[in-house]
Structures are given as structure tokens and as C-alpha cells.
Amino acid sequence: MTPPREPSPALEIERLSVSFETPRGEVRALRDVTFDIEAGEVFGVAGESGSGKSTLAYAIMRDLAPNARVVGGAIRCAGDDLLGLAPDALRSIRGRRIAMVYQDPQSALNPSMRVGQQIAEVLEIHALASRSGAAARALELLALVHIPDPPAVARAYPHQLSGGMQQRVVIAMALAGNPGLLIMDEPTTGLDVTTQARILELVADLRHNIGAAILYISHDLAVIAQVSDRVGILYAGELVEVASVARLFHHPAHPYTRGLLEALPDIDLARGFRPIRGRLPDLTRIPEGCVFAPRCDFVEDACTRGQPAMATAVQGHAARCLRWEMVMAMPPAPQGRRIAQRSRETASTVASVQNLTKHYDEPSALARWLGLARPPVHAVDDVTFDVRGGEVLALVGESGCGKTTLGRVLVRLLPLTAGAASVRRRESGAEITSDAEFRRVVRIVFQNPDSSLNPTKRIAAILDRPLAIHGVSRPARRARVRELLEAVRLDPSYLDRLPRALSGGEKQRVAIARAFATGPELVVLDEPLSALDVSSQASIVDLLMELRVRLDASYVFISHDLSLVRHVADRIGVMYLGKLVELGTVDEIFSPPYHPYTRALLSSIPVPDPSAPATTVRLEGAVPSARRPPSGCRFHTRCPSKLGRICEEVEPPLQRADGTRWLACHIPLEDLRREPPVRPGNA
Amino acid sequence: MTTLAAVARADAPLVIGALILGCVLVLTVLAPLVTPYGVAEQSILDRLQRPGAKHLLGTDQYGRDLLTRTLFGGRTALLLGLGAVALGLLLGVPIGLASGYAGGRTDEVVMRVVDAFLSFPALLMALMIVTALGASTAHALLAIGVANAPGIARIVRSQTLAVKHEEFVLAARAQGDSQAYVMFGEILPNLLPPIVIEATIRIGFAILAGASLSFLGLGVQPPTADWGLMIREARQHIFLSPWPLLCPGAALALTIVGFNLFGDGVRDRLAGRA
Amino acid sequence: MAHYVARRALLIALVLVLISLIVFVAIHVLPGSAATLILGEYATPENLRALERDMGLDRPLAVQYAAWIGGVVTGDWGYSLAMKQPVTAIIGLRLRNSALLASFALVAVVLVAIPLGTLAALRRGRWLDLAILTGSYLGISVPEFVTGMVLILVLAGPSLHFFPTGDYAPLAAGLRTWLSHLVLPALTLTLVLLAHVIRQTRSGLVEVLQSAYVRTARLKGATERRVVVRHALRNGLLPAVTVIALDLGYLMGGIVVVEEVFAYPGMGRLILYAIQNRDVPLLQVSILIVAATYTVANFAADMVYAWLDPRIRYR
User: N or C: which end of chain A has fewer CB within 10 A?
Assistant: First the structure.
């Protein structure tokens, strides 16, 4: 009598290697990846861009690009080999035993098919229900993913739903076949922080209700910490560490893991905020030895001779490093210093914004005559604040709050609709009137380094232009361009290159150099780090802070990342739907935040600490349309602390609260002071 | 299927197109050197001859050597095609660029006008212009160029719209670059690949349009050698000898195919890389 | 949706007005006034003045335009100088003949081109696709007059007289005869149109087949057949609607040449006749009608497209 077999793991990846054939050579995207996922477990795979994580997901689904080959290894789902499957068998597995959710739900859904039908289709394909049964089950699934009013949503077309809803629909579609394995590839990237928090809650919920194993892939370590049971770290195609989530985050054994954790801005300022030096290796020319060696702080000779094998530290915790013991034993990096260094306390005002309003998409006369006018988008409404000399003022809020528009109005890229904004010179205090002077003294750095540099121009030309406009002579320009490059720590050989030859971080340095070319006194930075890899973010922040001190400039630092802002800002302004709801120093805003929205924002941010407490403030619903902002306090439709009629009818003015804080809320100060502190937490 | 074969198969249009065009170009440029007879050399005795030793491709109804006329006809065709598209670019690019960049009311108005022009089938537009100006090679070139301009303007405009919100354009405006510089110095260089592709494909159609106009008697006038004109002249005698029809006809088809293949091949290549 | 329709309708009305302006201006303002055009060699100063007075060409341009367009809208389409009849009497018949030809071509295109284009897209890269692509390349590259004349040469010659060389016979002369006059010109037109539509159908479908939602459908475990029929075709063929409308425009240009080759009495030939005979009133109205038909067809196609695409229908 044979003993009953142990149930096979939901997913077994054994020494998987995948390569792509390209004109440049063989890109070895995945090498020797091995891990298992048990039923009911969430396994997080974390990696930066180029790590191979999406390749992994598509390899499991056998949906790789035509020029990709699995060059070795095995993939098994509940004991069954996936790589050798015939097309018919593969089709019966997809959607049924393994399902996938990926980024950008809008494009994943068929725009001309109703949502309910797309979900029901999974059941029809796998003959799990009749037509009516499938439709009914679709409604159940929509309820399962916390969608209000399932019948209405089921009848809708994808474009009629918000991003968060669309993603839930995609998740419902993935769950329809009752899969044993669910693969989620960056499902919350591109969603707002508060929406993301709800989706992550949903994932945790599902884990308890559905017995499926989940493979969760993300570049965001904080998110991984929040959802996973066990974690694998992927670097340049190799799995360099695998551990339970607690062990990985508290006792990392691989230098890259350590580096990643330290490269994140810690919202409690407890940990260092340090970059990882170097770049990703070229995947067509992988060096001998450990793939992380060129960037490693713990490297020794033996590391460059032969790829290290996975060494097991403790049961379930393995790292691909020869010196893992030392890495684990190393104490955590020193307390993060506040990078913001105010050069001197000053009360001088560099920029003054009064009742600034920006509306766009005003209806044309024709539209109004036809009665087809839509109200304009109220991007920024009646915002008032100052920017002081030498300070970093952060503007935070989620997408659609108007911070980007505000930044662009400040640098005169967009005309304002009402109100005033003026900028004064530091030295003289005189207001800047001439346009040429303004554009020399006030500059902007954009978010996306891939699109902020003209792809057809060489770096030298890009940096030369602002100088040429402001009348600098040719020889002086040439010298200055070199100086600029040096200031942003780029080699002069970059001058002749085109942007596409540079990495994201390098391109952002060029964008920063361009902004500083004219010696500005006020620089608006619009999400300057969002598009960069974690490992390069810290070095860009260092550079920005260094430049600020050198030039004694002021920054308006626009971001949605509160952890980052805590490290760099002196004062913070919180925006919601075009309005400034709270303004104060960093210390004031963080402990404690007064405005209910600020509290919710802070609470929704995932931190890379699996032991962090649960989210305390949940926001229901979606952000209202900026064309028809709610009456009274714009936040009242979602505010968990709403008082009542007054919030719906009367708009709270921005008033002084304690200390140097400004607040727009009807709730009496004593009540706000008594609220329990909010910590950024996990679901 | 190895990768090499796949790459070759994918780029086949480009290669074949380039080959065809290369031959056409060489032959037409070298026409005076290669052809044994003069373009207008008539010989009543040798009317409507079939291809033979004396005349490699035969003769037309006036005894003119078909090989000679076909090769010289290529010159006219290329002149017309390239010239018309050049004119179309000269007119269409600035209009599309400026309209797309300006946006708002201006853009709406300009595009309505462009749409109105585009509501005319290209040949009809060209017909109208030639009617008003009189039939000649130069007028045909002008007409086809003007007929192409709105389509080019449309395409340039939509490309401009795609680019004008890119952050490098915003950066240029923020630092005080003039509108003209932003349009021509920042945006236009990024538009070159699609413009080149569009232009190449349109050359084929311009040649076709030019030949059609000449066929209708409204383009190139006798005694100039032109493929469309040759076919028009050959109409009455096709049952006596098909060669005056087939030679220019084949030449036309081949040249246009060449341009189309090449243009599509370039587009696929650039799209693949992007 | 109502917003969209209203907006487009207004724009189309505007475009139609602009078209009439363009036609008028092209013929009246460019060097060589209408009178010179008409008189040709006989344009002596006295004759010019007399004719201008006669035809009202000495009035200000704006007035002339208003008079003309007013007439067009109320049904007075002018008087043909060359044919000595009111234009309305001439155009009806010609329009019908051309419409007949065009309908044949369009029906053939829908029945043949869309399936072929779809097939080519589904078998992308394989022999069938290459064959269809090659055929369509030839179709768009060989001028219609060459195709037409080659067809005449082969099928209507003295030896193989399958079809007449041209002209038109009324239905009264017998179905067979009537059809025989239509086959060759319709075939010529169709071949080129087919080529255009095949290419555009193919590229539209190829794009859809590579989209993210088709990938999702495959990852749901759908069979290739379901992916194609339920997901790809619905969205991929949507552009085909506009393609057909756009090709109507092509059709109207090509029809001029084809009617000339086959001496077919339709609008195309009428326009050429008007040009050759310098018949300004006839020319103006004929071109206006062709352009207006094209515009309205495009508008109709836009409306169909908007109705079919949920993103526009349910804003």
C-alpha cells in the first residue's frame, strides 16, 4: 500500500532559464531560477526593471514573444509539467488552473464587450456553467472583488469604469475559473495610493477566502512586504534571495536585498537612504562570477570566480552569496539624516501665490450655443501659499489633485485663469517682470526622463540651448556645458551622445543640469524620481539637495511619495481636487496630520516592513470628477470624519491652525488634536 | 525557421523595392547613353514593329523606338513624381506643423479647410487645377503637388499633436524658446521619419496620378515622352500592336510597385524598431 | 452620442460650403477667367466683354457665387453651354450610370476584399498572406487605365470578343447585353479598390491581433477561433467601415479614368467632356456633386462607426 502522496506545490519552478534572440545577441533574461509556491500561499517576486520578472510571469503562462526560448529548466503546476504541454492542453489550463492579472487593466479589457460578458466568457470557455449560470456567477465574482452594484457594472463597457474598478474586473475575470495559481504582475502600478490600498486589501481578503496560490510580482518593495508570505528577489535574471517576508525584510542575507531596502526613503527616518552604485549588467554579456559583484559593497575575489550557488542560511531562507553570513550580521545602516539642509533660516519670500485658479477645457461658444457645453476642468482652485528663500516646499496629493498643473502655472508654461503668482529675486527682493529674466530664474525638471529630452538632439545641444537663449557667448557656453555635466557627475564623453544611449537615471541628471544651466533661484521639480528605479533614486536626491545648497535655490517639490517627501522637504502642502487642504512644516504634517485626507493619505502608504500595523483610515469611492467638484468641502464625499450638512454646503477656508500650520476643515481643532496618531501601515 | 531567414523575410519589401528603384533610377539617368535612337526620331517605314533586332522593344505608330521612349518616359515620370511630392511637402508640412502646434480655434479652422480639400478625390482636384491653368507638364506637377498637400498636412498635424505634449517640448517652451524654434527646431526633427515614409509612398501615387493626367490629355503634352501619354497615343492601335501599350504600362507598374514596396518596407522597419 | 452626431453634422455642413467655395474659386479666380476658358482662341476683348455680360460674369465674385449656390440649393443647376440643355437633364442619367458601376465595385469589394484581408491577417507571414499581399500590391500600383486597356486587349479584342470594348447599353436591350457592357469597367475599378481595402483590412486586423486584450483572451484559454471571431474581428473590422467610405473617394477619382478608357457614359466622362469643351456651368456642378457625395458618404461612415464603437456611443 503506497502512502498517500504529498500534495504537490501549486507551482514549481526548477532551474528555469529563458533567453531572447535579438540582433544584438542572446539576451539571457532568466537564469537558473528555482522556487516553489504552496497552495494558499502568496509568493512575492520583487525586482527592478530589467530583472526579468515579467518574463517569468509570461514563461509560466507560455506566452512569451516569438523570439524567446526556454533554454532549460522545468515549470510544474500541481505536479503537471507545463513546458511540454500540447496547445489544446495548454488552452485548457489557461484561465482555469492558472490565471493572470497584469498592469494596465484598461488595455487588458476588450473595449467593445460588456464587462460582465468578459467575465462570464471564462466560464463558457471552460464549460463550467451554462450561459445563464455564467452570467449569474459573473455577478457573484464582481461582488467578491468588492464592486458596489454588480448588475450595473456588469452591463458597463470598460471605458465607463475607473482604473480601480477596471482592475477589480480583471481580478474577477482571473478568479472566474477558480484557478489554483493566480499570477499578478504589477497589478497596482498606475493606480492611486488610496486605490492601491483597497486593491491590496482585496488581495489579502482573497487569500483567506480562496485557496489559490498567488505569485505577486512588483518593483515596489513596500507592496511586496504588505501582501506576501514569502519573497524572492530577482536581479538581472537571477533569483538572489528567497525567504519568508519577515526574515527578508528584517534580516536580509544578500547585498542586493540590503541595498534595495536601504535605497528606499524610510518614512520614519529610521534607516539610511542610500543608492546602489553602478548599473544593471548587459544581459548579452554577463560576466563570470556573481552577477551583482560589480555593484556590491561586500565583494571579494572569490565572488568573481564562478556563480555562487544558493546557500541556505536557515530553513526556507537562502541567498546566492558567498558572504551571506557577514551580510546578515551587519547592523542596519545608520539613522537617515534629514537630507534637507536649510542653509539659513530666512523669512524672505521667493514666490508668492495668491488665490491662484486654473481651469481648462472651457467650452467653445459653439458648444454653449448648442447646449452641449461641459463645465471646464477645475484643475487648481483658489490656492494661496508662499515659497521661502532656500526652502524645499513639497506639494503632495494623488493624481488629479492639480499639483502638476500648479507647478506648470508657476513656471509660466500655462496661463493662469484667475489670481496671481509672483516671483522675487533673492538678493534684491524685487519682483521679476521681464519674461526673459523669469525664465532664467525659474526652471522646471519633469517627471519622465525618457520624454523630457529631445531624442533627436545630442546632450551637448540640449544643455547648450538654455544658455544660448539667454545670450551667453559661444565659448562661455562650451565651458559652462562641461561644468554642468560635471556638476551632475556625468563624464564629458556624454556630450556627444543621444539620449537613447543613456540610462533613466543619467537622463534625469541631464534634465537637472539643463534646469540649473541658467543659475535659477526657484526650481519646480515635478515628480523627478517617479520614473526611476529604486536603486538610483537616492543618488538623484543627493544630487538635488547638493545643488540646492550650492545655489541657495528654493524648490517646489511635487510628489505623491510621502516617505520621500519626509526626507527632503522643509514644508509640505497637501492638495485634493484642486484645493490646498493642509500646509505646514514637515514635522507638523507628519505628527500628527490634522486634515482627514492627509490622514488617509499617510495611512494608505505601504511601507517595506511586514510587521507594520494595519491601515487605519480607509477611503471609499473614487475621486470625483474635476469638472463637477463637490459643493462645499470637496472632500466631503469620501471623508470618514464628515460632520454633516456644513461640509456639504460651506467650503472651509484655509486658516491658521496650531503653530505655522494652515488647514481647511470644519472639524474643530480640539477634536483633530485628539485623533489617534496615524502610521503608514499595511492592510 | 532561423532568425536570419525571418529577418530577411520581414525586410523583403524593403530590399526588393530598393532593387527595383535602383534599376529604374540607373536606367532613366543613363537613358541618353543607353538608347540607340533619339526620343523623337520617327520612321514611317518602321511603324508598329514587334520587338526585334532593330528595335529591342518595337516601335510605336510613328516608328519611334519604344525602348528609347520608355526610358525617357521614366525621366518625366520621376520628375513629376518627385517634384509633385516635394511641392506637397513644401506646402503641407508647415501648415500641418503650425496648425497642430497652435491647437484650439486656429487648428479647428485650418483642419476644416484641409478636410474640404481632402473631400475632393485627388485626381479631381488635380483636374480642376489643370483645367484652370491649362494642360502642361509644369501645371500637372503643380496640380498633383497641391492635391497632395492637404493629406500631408493632415498627417504632419496628427504627428505634431502627438509630440507637442512631450516633456521636451514643454521644457523648450518653459525656458523661453520662441514658437518658431519649438516647431522647427524641436518638434520637426522628431517628425522626419514619418514624413519620409509618407513622402516615399506618395511618390508612387504621384507618378500614377501624373500618368493618369497625361493619359487624359491633361498633363504632359506631345511630343515629350511620357508613359501615360504613350498609352493614350497607343489606344487606337492596340489591336494592331500591343507593344506601345505594354512597354510603358509595364514600366509604370514596375516603378510604382518599387516605390510602394520601398516605402512600406521603410515604414515597417522603423515601426519595428520603435 | 448626440453631442458627437450634432458636432459632426455641423462640421459636415461647413465642409460642404467650403467645397462649393473651392470649386467656384478654382474655376473662376485662377488665371484665365471663366470667359477666357470658354472662348478659348476666340477670346478677343469684345467677345470677352460680351460673353461676360451675357453670363453675368462681370458682377462681383461674391454675387456670382451667391447666385450660383442659391441656384444649386433650389434646384436650378445652370445651363450647359456645350450640350445646350439644362444641367439637371444631363446629370441624372450620368449619375445613375456611374452609380451602377460604383455599386458593382463596392459590393464586390465587401464580399471579396474583407474576407481576403482577414485571411491575410490571420495567416500573417505565411504563403497565403504573401500571395494576397503581392496581389494587392499590384492592384494598387498598376494604373487603372493600364489594367483597363490590358483587359480590353485580352478579352475584347477581335479574337476573344467576350465583351464589348466599351459604351453602355440600357437594360431594355437585354440583360446579357446590359451586363456585358458593365463587366470590364466594373472589373477594372474593382481590382484597384480591392487592393486598397485588402491592405487596410489586413493592417487593421493585424494591429488588433497584437493588442493587449486579445492577449488576455488567449490567456483566458480561448480557442483561436473564439479569439478571432469574438474579440479580434469585432474591433478589427471597425476600421473597415471607414475604409470603404474613404475608398468611395478613390472610386470617384478612378472612375474618371475608367469611364474614359471604356467610353462609358457616366459622371467621369461628363466631367472630362465639360473640361474639354470648357463648359463651366456643367463642370462646376458635376465636380460639386462628386465631392459632396464623397463627403456625405464619409459622414455616414462616421456615424456607423460611432454607433458600433461603444467608446463613442456611450460616452
Answer: N
